Amino acid sequence: MMQESGTEATNGTANQNSAAPSVEGHREVRSKSATLSSDITVSDLVNFQQQQALQVARQIILQQQQQSSAHKSPKNNDKQPAPQVHVHLSSSLRLPRQVSVQQLAFQQQLLQVQQLQQQHLLSLQRQGLLSIQPNQTLPLHSLTQGMIPAELQQLWKEVTNSHVKEENSAHNNGHRGLDLSSPSPVPPKNHNQHGSTNGQYISHSLKREGSTLDDHSPHSHPLYGHGVCKWPGCEAVFEDFQSFLKHLNNEHALDDRSTAQCRVQMQVVQQLELQLAKDKERLQAMMTHLHVKSTEPKPAPQPLNLVSNITLSKTAPEASPPLSLPQTPTTPTAPLTPLSQTHSVITPTSLHSVGPMRRRYSDKYNMPISPDIVQNKEFYMNAEVRPPFTYASLIRQAILETPEKQLTLNEIYNWFTRMFAYFRRNAATWKNAVRHNLSLHKCFVRVENVKGAVWTVDELEFQKRRPQKISGSPALVKNIHTTLGYGPALSAAFQASMAENNIPLYTTASIGSPTLNSLASAIREEMNGAMDHGNSNGSDSSPGRSPLPAMHHISVKEEPLDPEEHEGPLSLVTTANHSPDFDHNRDYEDDHGHEDML
DNA sequence: ATTAGGGTAAACATGT
DNA sequence: GACATGTTTACCCTAA
């Protein structure tokens, strides 16, 4: 019969996802997210930074070597012929790699640098500013395993070797130094006559651990911590501060090596600062952008999954008002990256759709769907993720979204396909379920109309279901509570999602935080609503709304809440939500075979 | 172990 | 007869 169907533009793509909606879908999205520009940018930035540091360091070394070779006597080196000093850049590469102490030290410094960078990246991620390519776990890997160890280590070798040689020369001239060029490697742990390597290098320059170079108490020095000299590459241990000072003056006096190290350090710091500045700038731009609704056309809808595609209010052209922008300006957490490059508003329920959850959602899914649907509208529209709502809830939502509060069966179908990518497949299955629910639940009333029959919602009936569900709501309540505390339920779902996407654990915290915050906010909202209006919303989820266990203990057999109280949020939402544009989105048809499906 | 709610499948009826 | 719409039943699963 007259299907007003099918003009949905996105149909084509909708069916191409033969993969299971949940799991496979995630993978797909993951790979997509991997192409996010921010990933590349960050990676490039860091690489660039490294390269620049190398470049500068090399220059420094060259200069120094030129200088040293110009005025130092090669003969002073009893173990290494002078010429070696002059060929460092080229021939040193061919020299057998001797694991010098300084190399080790430098390696550790590199680790420190990497850690710092990682921290930086993590902080960016926490702010939702950085996205990690799921497939690469962490961009840092490429840094730490690629160029850094090789090139930087080589660089450091060059630095240290040249200095050592200089020092050796100098040593004979009254200075002291290490003969690293000696074929017999110095015991790795005796660098500078001391223990193992150290790092702290950058961490000190950046973190300063509360002090500055010129601001240190008698027993506090930026280069001295925990009894260890924190000069880059030095990890000398000292019993007391005085010893350290002595060491500092002797070992790290103003000489070429120290100067070079200092320059390298400066360069590193500059690069990090540069990167920080850039990231700050980016953050600013992002925040600005987010506060000024974008008018840009949204990218072609693609089936995405939770991770890369959670809703965006900004791009939603429809009426659905962004009930809540995820974050306040103070929380630059605007869910970005890994999770999505768009500001997502992941509401609690949406998380539940993550994973292979196939059948029935527990009572917790009876939460009012309006806010969730509205907030995650785009997400559901694009991601083949099963909405965490019962058919009854969805049907009701569909009906209430219309001005007339009534829909024909076919219109309900259309709403489903329009609003949820998930329902663009296996139509026979879910349509049957829709019909089944319409008939089964008394809350759905069939009304004969001029143009046939339409379905309406009997809110009272609908509400009646609530109390019953309340008995089952403890789950929801518990869920809410745990969620508020970033508890097991949520984090489990979230972590599962993360795991799904190969996102390292730490990202769960860093990335998740913002999102979780928004989740918590959403939930709080919901809870507030429940508290303030009882089973407000009247959405079918009311049972779930009972915010506290104590509350539903008494409600199992309570009579339905006053309808009045159900007005609130839901009404507003549903009313505001109605989007005319929907009329243009017809039919994502239709029986794309029953493929795999549920 | 039981119960209730929900999802899925399917048989069947009716109308177009 | 095919299809859409509706109703009903049965079974399964999950959570309480």
From TrEMBL:
Transmembrane segments: none annotated. The gene is LOC107584474. It comes from Sinocyclocheilus grahami (Dianchi golden-line fish). Residues 386-459 form the Fork-head domain. Residues 1-20, 343-352, 534-544 have a biased composition (Polar residues). PANTHER family: FORKHEAD BOX P, ISOFORM C, FORKHEAD BOX PROTEIN P1. Its main location: nucleus. Keywords: DNA-binding, Metal-binding, Nucleus, Repressor, Transcription, Transcription regulation, Zinc, Zinc-finger. PROSITE patterns: FORK_HEAD_2 (PS00658), FORK_HEAD_3 (PS50039). This is Forkhead box protein P1-B. It is found in: Nucleus. InterPro entries: FH_FOXP1_P2, Fork_head_dom, FOXP, FOXP-CC, TF_fork_head_CS_2, WH-like_DNA-bd_sf, WH_DNA-bd_sf. Pfam families: Forkhead (PF00250), FOXP-CC (PF16159). Signal peptide: none annotated. Residues 386-459 bind DNA.
